[in-house]
Design a protein that fits this description.
This protein is an alpha/beta fold. It has 29 helices and 21 strands. The chain has 4 domains: about 160 residues, Distorted Sandwich (Calcium-transporting ATPase, cytoplasmic transduction domain A), CATH 2.70.150.10; about 280 residues, Calcium-transporting ATPase, transmembrane domain; about 140 residues, HAD superfamily/HAD-like (Rossmann fold); about 150 residues, Calcium-transporting ATPase, cytoplasmic domain N. It is about 50% helix and about 15% strand. The strands form 3 sheets. It has an 8-stranded mixed β-sheet with strand order 8-21-20-19-9-16-18-17, sandwiched between helices. Its EC number is 7.2.2.14. Belongs to the cation transport ATPase (P-type) (TC 3.A.3) family. Type IIIB subfamily. It is found in: Cell inner membrane.
C-alpha cells in the first residue's frame, strides 16, 4: 500500500487526502509551494532520499495488475453454473452408491475446469509478453549527496518516487503525475485520460483558469472553428502532466508529485468497480437454472410415480438418478471450453488477437453493436490536407505554398524539435522545391494567446523587401488583415462553413515589409484557407463494410467535435442516423437515452461517464455491446460492455482488463474475431439444441414407459452407457463447420427461445420413442415376455434416433445440400453403428442386451423414416416462422 503523495496535484494539505473524482481548481499552489510540500528542489533528490521514499511510498506501479495464478483460474472455472449441475448429480450418484456414474461425472468436471483454466492462463501469459513492449525506463535527475552536482541517468519506472526530477522528450511516456519546471514547445497526448485526439499544449507557467488552448490546431477543448468548449478542468491545467499520457512534441523538466496508486491514472482504474455479467454468462446462467430445476425434480417425481402406480420403492432410485443424468448435457463444459479454446488459438495464431477470457469469444460472436472511438480506430493520429482555397472559395495551390513555407521556416528558425501535427501535414503535401525557393529571416512560433505563427522570408529577386507570412486560427488572422467589415464577415462565414463540415481550418495571410524592420502582424493581405481532415485508417472502410454484412452496427463515441466525427463517418461510408452531444445527453433520463441510443450513430464530446452510460443504455435496449478502447478513460465503459477490446499499445490497465487484445487498432481484426466467435457460438448452440431436445424426449419416454410397463424400460447401466455414447458422439460439434449463413448474424444464446425449441422437438422425439413400443410389441409379441429384448430394442432405437437428430438438426432445412459430410455426420454414423451392433456383440451380454429379431429392424426403419420426415417438416416450419436460435 502506498503511503499517499507528499503533495496532492492541486493543493498542499496538512495530510494526504483520498482521491476525489472531481477535484476543485482552487486554490492552486504555486511552484514554490509544490516544491516545499514535496521537500524537493529543481536539482532533484539525493540517492539516499530516493531510496527512503521508495520504501515509504512503494513502487511506481498501478495496483492489481498481476495476472491470476493457475490455481485461481482453476477455482474460478469450478464456479461455472453447468459445472455446478454436474457436481450436484455427482453427489446424488455417490449418495446412492452409484460410484461409476459419480466417477464419470467428476472426471468430466475436472477435465472441463483444467481446459478452461489452461486456455485463460495461456492468454494471460501472452498479454504479459505484450507489457514488455511498453517503455519501462525514465530519465531522472539525481545527486549522490547534498553537495554533489545533479546527474541524469535512466532508471526503471517502478523506482520513481515523489520529488524526483524527470526529463521528458518527444515520444516519452509520462511516468507519473508531474508538475512542470521548465518546458520548450511541449505538447502532450492526453487521449488515454480524456479521449481528446489532438495534442494539448503544456507550459511551466502557472495555471490557466480558462482552460483554453491554441485555437486553429484543434487541441483539447476547441472545435475546428476555434471555439472553446472544454471549460475548466484539471487536465487542461497547462503546468500539470499525468501518468498515462505521452509527449507529442517539445521537451520538459518536471518534478514528480504522485506515483503508483496515488496517480489519477490509478484512481480512474479503481473507480471502475467489478464488471457485470456478460451476455454469454447471463445466457448460460439462464439455461443452467432450467436444467437444475429439471434435474432436481426428476428423481423425486420418478420415485413418487413408481411408488403410487407400481408399488416400487427405493429400488427405482438408481434408475431415477440415471434419468436425471440423461437429462443433463454432461459434456457441455468440455464442449464449450473446447469450442472457445480452438477459436482463441486460431485467432492468436493467424490474426494476432489474444482472447484473455474464453467466454468473451462467444460474446463477440453475439455482438450486434460495436462502440469505438474515432481517433486511432477510424482515423490515424495525424491530419492531412483536404483543400487550399482562396478568398472566393476556389482551389488555389498558392495558398498551400505560403502555408507550407511558414511551417518550414517556423521549424527551422524557432529551433523546434519536431513539427506539430498540422505543420507536418502541410510539409508532407507541399512541393519541396517550392519551399527551398525562400530564405528564412526570422520566426515568431505559435503562441496560444495569439493563436497564430509568423515567419519572415526573403523572396528571390526582391532585394530590400521581405515577405511576412502569418498562419493560424481564421478569426485571429482575419483580425489582422486590411479588409472591409462586410468582406471580413463573409470570410468568417466561409471558414465557419468549412469547420461545420468537420474540417480543421487554417487561415493564411501575407504582407510586404522593408528589410530590417520588426515583424508587424497588422495590415495583412488575406490569401486563403487551408482545410485539413483526419487521416483515415486505410483498412477502416473495408472493415466497417464487413462488420455491417455480419449485422454489427458501429457507433462512434468520441471526445471530439461532432462535426469532425460526422465528417469521418461520411468519408468512411457510415450512414449517420443521428448525432448526440454530451450537453444534450445530460438532459436525458435513462429510459429516454435507451430509446435514443439505438438510433444514434455519433456521440460527441463524451466523457468517460457518458461512454459508460451509453453502453449501459444500449444493453438495456437488448443489444450485445462491444467496446473498443485504449485509454484509462475508456476503462469504465470497457468493463460495462459485454465484451471489451483493446489494442496492444493501449494503456496497461486497459489492456489488462480487456477481454480481447488486438495487435493494433484495426477493425479488420475485430471482424475475424466476430467470425471466430460466431463459429464457436454456432457450434455451442447446435449442441444445446440437439442434446437437450433429444435428452428431453428420452426422459419423457422413459418416464412414460416406466409407468406403463411392469418392469423398468431400461436398466440404469444401460441408460448411462447410452448417455455416454451420445456424449462422446456430440464432441464432434466442437469441430463442426457451421453453414456460412450462421456467420452473418449474431449467435445469441436466448434461454426462452432455446426452451421453446427443445420442448417442441423433445416432444417429437418422445412420440418416436413411444411409437417404438408398438414396434416392440409386434416384433416381440408382447414386451413383457422378454425384458432383455425390450431393453435391447429400445437401446438401439434411442441411439439411432439420436444419430438422425444430430445430422438433420445440425444441417437444418436450409443447409442439407451442397455440404460435404463433416465431423458431426461421421460421428452420428459411428453412433448409429454402435446402436446396431452393440446388442449383438460380446459387450452386450454384460449390459443385459441381447440380439434382436430381423423383423424388428424393418419396422424400426419405418419408424425412423417417419421420424426423419417429421423432423424436417418441423424444422422447416420453425425456420420460416422465426430465425434459428443461434
Amino acid at each position: 500500500m502506498s503511503a499517499g503523495p507528499l503533495l496532492p496535484q492541486l493543493a498542499p494539505p496538512l495530510k494526504a487526502p483520498e482521491f476525489t473524482p472531481t477535484p476543485t481548481l482552487t486554490p492552486v499552489p504555486t511552484l514554490l509551494e509544490v516544491l516545499r510540500g514535496l521537500d524537493a528542489g529543481p536539482r532533484g533528490l539525493t540517492e539516499g532520499q530516493a531510496e527512503e521514499r521508495l520504501g515509504r511510498f512503494g513502487e511506481n506501479r498501478v495496483p492489481d495488475t498481476r495476472d491470476p495464478s493457475w490455481a485461481r483460474l482453476l477455482a474460478r472455472s469450478a464456479r461455472d453454473p453447468f459445472t455446478a449441475v454436474l457436481l450436484c448429480l455427482g453427489l446424488v450418484s455417490a449418495a446412492v452408491y452409484a460410484w461409476g456414474t459419480a466417477s464419470v461425472i467428476l472426471l468430466l468436471v475436472a477435465v472441463s475446469c483444467v481446459l478452461r483454466a489452461s486456455g485463460e492462463h495461456r492468454a494471460d501469459r501472452s498479454t504479459a509478453g505484450l507489457r514488455r513492449l511498453v517503455a519501462t525506463t525514465v530519465t531522472v535527475q539525481r545527486r549522490a549527496d547534498e553537495d554533489t552536482a545533479p546527474a541524469t541517468r535512466e532508471i526503471p519506472v517502478e523506482e520513481l518516487v515523489p520529488g524526483d526530477v524527470v526529463r521528458l522528450g518527444p515520444g516519452d511516456l509520462v511516468p507519473a503525475d508531474v508538475r512542470l519546471l521548465r518546458s520548450t514547445g511541449l505538447t502532450v497526448h492526453q487521449a488515454a485520460l480524456t479521449g481528446e485526439s489532438a495534442p494539448v499544449p503544456k507550459s511551466a507557467g502557472e495555471s490557466d483558469p480558462t482552460g483554453t488552448g491554441p485555437t486553429g490546431t484543434d487541441t483539447a477543448g476547441t472545435d475546428p472553428a476555434g471555439t472553446d468548449t472544454a471549460g475548466t478542468g484539471v487536465f487542461q491545467q497547462p503546468h500539470l502532466c499525468f501518468q498515462g499520457t505521452s509527449v507529442a512534441s517539445g521537451s520538459a523538466t518536471a518534478v514528480v508529485t504522485a506515483t503508483g496508486a496515488d496517480t489519477r491514472f490509478a484512481a480512474a482504474h479503481r473507480r471502475t468497480g467489478k464488471p457485470p455479467a456478460t451476455s454469454f454468462e447471463r445466457s448460460v446462467q439462464g439455461v443452467s437454472w432450467i436444467l437444475i430445476r429439471f434435474a432436481l425434480l426428476t428423481p423425486p417425481l420418478v420415485l413418487m410415480a413408481n411408488a403410487a402406480l407400481r408399488g416400487r420403492g427405493l429400488e427405482t432410485l438408481p434408475f431415477a438418478v440415471a434419468v436425471a443424468v440423461g437429462l443433463t448435457p454432461e459434456m457441455l463444459p468440455v464442449l464449450v471450453t473446447t469450442c472457445l479454446a480452438r477459436g482463441a488459438t486460431l485467432l492468436a495464431r493467424t490474426h494476432d488477437v489474444i482472447v484473455r477470457r474464453l467466454p468473451a469469444l462467444h460474446d463477440i460472436g453475439a455482438m450486434d453493436v460495436l462502440c469505438v472511438d474515432k481517433t486511432g480506430t477510424l482515423t490515424q493520429d495525424r491530419p492531412v490536407v483536404d483543400r487550399a482555397v482562396n478568398a472566393e472559395g476556389r482551389d488555389d495551390p498558392e495558398v498551400l505554398r505560403w502555408a507550407a513555407a511558414a511551417a518550414w521556416w517556423s521549424l527551422q528558425l524557432a529551433d523546434l524539435p519536431a513539427p506539430d501535427a498540422l505543420d507536418e501535414a502541410l510539409l508532407t503535401t507541399a512541393d519541396e522545391d517550392a519551399l527551398m525557393a525562400y530564405d528564412g529571416v526570422t520566426a515568431l512560433p505559435f503562441d496560444p494567446a495569439r493563436r497564430l505563427a509568423t515567419v519572415v522570408v526573403r523572396t528571390p529577386g526582391r532585394l530590400g523587401t521581405h515577405t511576412l507570412i502569418t498562419k493560424g486560427a481564421a478569426e485571429a488572422v482575419l483580425e489582422r488583415c486590411s479588409l472591409p467589415d462586410e468582406e471580413r464577415t463573409r470570410l468568417r462565414a466561409l471558414a465557419a462553413a468549412q469547420a461545420a463540415d468537420g474540417l480543421r481550418v487554417l487561415a493564411v495571410a501575407t504582407a510586404e515589409r522593408p528589410a530590417g524592420t520588426r515583424p508587424h502582424e497588422r495590415g495583412l493581405t488575406f490569401r486563403g484557407l487551408v482545410t485539413l481532415r483526419d487521416d483515415l485508417v486505410p483498412t477502416a472502410a473495408e472493415a466497417l463494410a464487413g462488420l455491417a454484412e455480419r449485422g454489427v452496427t458501429v457507433k462512434v463515441l468520441t471526445g471530439d467535435h461532432p462535426g469532425t466525427a460526422v465528417r469521418t463517418c461520411r468519408d468512411l461510408g457510415i450512414l449517420v442516423a443521428g448525432v448526440l452531444t454530451a450537453d444534450r445527453l445530460d438532459t436525458l433520463t435513462d429510459p429516454e437515452l435507451t430509446e435514443l441510443a439505438s438510433r444514434t450513430t455519433v456521440f460527441a464530446r463524451c466523457t468517460p461517464e457518458h461512454k459508460t452510460r451509453i453502453t449501459r443504455a444500449l444493453q438495456t435496449g437488448g443489444h450485445t455491446v462491444g467496446f473498443l478502447g485504449d485509454g484509462v478513460n475508456d476503462l469504465p465503459a470497457l468493463r460495462t460492455a459485454d465484451v471489451g477490446l483493446a489494442p496492444r499499445d493501449a494503456a496497461g490497465v486497459t489492456r489488462d482488463d480487456a477481454d480481447l487484445v488486438l495487435a493494433g487498432k484495426d477493425l479488420t481484426a475485430i471482424g475475424h474475431a466476430v467470425a471466430a466467435g460466431r463459429h464457436a457460438g454456432g457450434n455451442i448452440a447446435s449442441y444445446l439444441r440437439i442434446t437437450l431436445s433429444s435428452n428431453l424426449g428420452n426422459v419423457i419416454a422413459m418416464l412414460s414407459a416406466g409407468l406403463l410397463l411392469p418392469f423398468l424400460p431400461m436398466l440404469p447401466a444401460q441408460v448411462l452407457v447410452q448417455n455416454l455414447c451420445f456424449d462422446a458422439a456430440q464432441l464432434a460439434f466442437a469441430y463442426d463447420r457451421p453453414a456460412p449463413s450462421a456467420l452473418r448474424r449474431p449467435t445469441v444464446l436466448e434461454p426462452r427461445a432455446l426452451l421453446r425449441f427443445i420442448v417442441g422437438f423433445g416432444a417429437l422425439n418422445a412420440v418416436a420413442d413411444l411409437a417404438t413400443f408398438g414396434v416392440l410389441a409386434f416384433a416381440l409379441r408382447g414386451p413383457g415376455d422378454d425384458e432383455a429384448l425390450f431393453h435391447s430394442g429400445w437401446f438401439t432405437e434411442n441411439l439411432l434416433t439420436q444419430a438422425v437428430v444430430m445430422v438433420l438438426l445440425s444441417l437444418g432445412a436450409r443447409g442439407t445440400s451442397g455440404r460435404r459430410p463433416g465431423p458431426v455426420t461421421w460421428s452420428a454414423a459411428a453412433l448409429a453403428a454402435t446402436g446396431l451392433f452393440l446388442p449383438m456383440s460380446a459387450l452386450g451380454a454384460p449390459l443385459g442386451l441381447s440380439p434382436l429379431p430381423g423383423v424388428y429392424y424393418g419396422l424400426l426403419a419405418a419408424v425412423l423414416t417417419l421420424y426423419a420426415a417429421g423432423l424436417m417438416t418441423a424444422r422447416a416450419r420453425q425456420e420460416r416462422r422465426s430465425p434459428p436460435v443461434a
